[in-house]
Amino acid sequence: MGLAGGGELRAYCCLGCEAVSRSILGLGLEDYYRLRERPAIRPASEVGSDLASFDDAAVQEHFATTLDGGLREARLLLEGLTCPACAWLVEQVAGRLPGVAAVNANYTARRAMVQWDPSSVKLSAILEAIRRVGYGAWPYEEGRVALIESNERRTALRRLWIAGLGMMQVMMYAVPAYFAGEGEITPDLASLMRWAGLVLTLPVIGYSAAPFFRGAWRDLRLRTLGMDVPVALGLGVAFIASAFATVLGRGEVYFDSVAMFVFLLMGGRYLEFVARGRAAESLRHLSRLSPAGMRKIAPGDVVLVRAGEGVPADGRLESDAALVSEAWLTGESRSLPKRRGERILGGSVNDGSAFSLRVQRVGADTAIASIQRMTDRALAERPHWVAAAQRASSMFVAGVLITSALAGLAWLAIDPSRALWIAVSVLIVTCPCAFALATPAAVTVAMGRLARGSFVVSRANAIEALASATDFVFDKTGTLTYGRPRLTAVMATGAMPEAKCRDLASAIARLSSHPLDRALACAGNADAIAVASHESVAGSGLQAKVDGRTLRLGRASYVAELSGKPVPPVWMDVQDSIVWLGDEEGCLACFRLGDELRPGTRSAIDALHAMGIVVHLLSGDEHPVAARIAAELGIPKVTARALPELKQRYVRNLQLGGACVAMVGDGINDAPVLAQADVSIAMGSGSDIASLRADAVLLSDCLADLVDGLRVATRTRRVVRQNIGWAIAYNGIAIPLAVAGWVTPLMAGIGMSASSLLVVLNALRLRG
Amino acid sequence: MDILFLLVPLSVVLAIAIGAAFWRAIDTGQFDDLEGPALRIVADDDSNAASRIRGG
Q1: Contacts of B4 in chain A (CB under 8 A)
Q2: pTM as predicted
């Protein structure tokens, strides 16, 4: 929520704080905000240890929804994830519980989606299972996200400091040993310095490196091989060998290498942490706008939305007029005037004076929540290549352990004093995390970038499919045009007067959601007419019974079929859409509907052509209309009068010919065709977002954003390939070098940290 | 060089003390906002009420 006060727009975590702020401002004490050293303490939103409270239905309303079939679905916030394998682990652990239908966790965004059967298992049991493995699990809410992030950041910083301090001090004790000649340092002093090194390396191993040991222990307990295992093994062996050397008084001591290695690892982790935070940030801007804290609103209530406030729920305007900004939806910060009765979406900002809103949908049912769910689903789903990468990385770790052991054994024969350290170097230098991190990092950053461009991805595979698309198929009505045809002319062709035709047509048209019918619904006065029964044939029209008479409204051929008489030759070559009304005796009237092209469509199509993409136009409309639009836009391949089955077959034929097809449609009427395409994109405005069945949604309805999205997808694919290529090259070079004995533990540490950091930074390039 | 037998243990103690100091600093939030304080210096502060509250 925002409140205009003291000239600034502020955001509050809850109503309580907002009320306090208003009193502060009301007393003329704005200076408090300017002078205070840090923001006020935010109360923790939920009692932390009381998991049972999350099972309460009223509480669950704010982060859980019920799906068809009785399953419940909720978004969770996870704490303590250190690498993508941790997310995978959460999925395994939670997924094994009976009653849990699906679990999907995303490492970068720290989120998880879980679907469960409330009659078999409670949400608190799921949270408990995740916590038992060592991760925090909470219902997802904004206030808690900030809290958890702050805690994780502070801990990471603490670990980094301890490691850095330890490293510098221990180096100071180690350096004399490197530079001293024989006998320059007395054995007593040498021993003292070694002990000092041991003492200062203890906190580094015990605290800073603790996550690696915990992670390795967890992996082994669950019989998996994660990247923590070789790291923990390498560190443990190095430290224990050095400790023995210190106690026994002979042999080499490598505390400085151990400490530096831990410092570099923690440094890499901290930077990766910051990068992850920024990647997740752009995805969260939607969450931040979502009105939380409004726990008492129900559909049917009338709410007062004050000036500057955010709209708390979807609803219809009760006041006469209002001015709102739907920047979250369209990306435009222009204020839109709304008239009484018009729909206003939750998450919009009131740019004018206060108005009343009759609430229709709250909480998880609002449009903004639906979009968040779509994003979550895409985040949670694992594109097939990432799942493959996880499996490969597990085998890779096994390979590394074996190689290290073999190298150690081999060197025992050649030069025993080096054997241990070469084995340690092999363990440390390899980085399977580059594989496991490469694609998820890039995909998550790309999704955030796309969301900022009003292109909401709902399926994780969409980005790759979009990048490989060779053909783009566009629907006409509602996609290339506004989809809001207007009735421009009526002509009665039968005995019935025109007014009566209009009334009948509007009565029948009301029953359909097709854009052409929606325009006809206001063509006449349908109040007095009762439609007894109706059925609709997709792509052709509607048939209805009124006053005992069977009527058809729709395409010329469909209407003429009823009477068997040919259609009168009226408006044959006109380039607008024509809808006919007829009964069993003949055609009664025809209606002419004009539709407007969206602006910017031509340049978008041109841009697609410039990228080498073949563009098609598929329309259910008559040929002249489709041809005119195609000519105007420069689309070479046009197919008119395409019924849904024909559209589907058209796409399938393209695919059989080897093409990767992207289909752009209106999301509701084109559902089957969209499902057939390799990637489907739906236009977002005006429709019920929750029921869209597409891989991606174009919220702004601007085709230029589509082209932009395509460019981002192509760049993403390129970055993923670069990352995987780098991972292969790095490991391919580093492992042989380490086995040959050319890599010291120190160099190994630097190499490993730098490698994973490079992959994440490369992915961050996609933010631009 | 006998002094080193004193200095080395002393340095260990000193390192631990510094570590403790940084720990406290992080805990009390000194590192939470790394850009804000720098910007605050250049922010305008015209209000007289501010100086009244500070007692200066």
Answers
A1: 189, 192
A2: 0.61
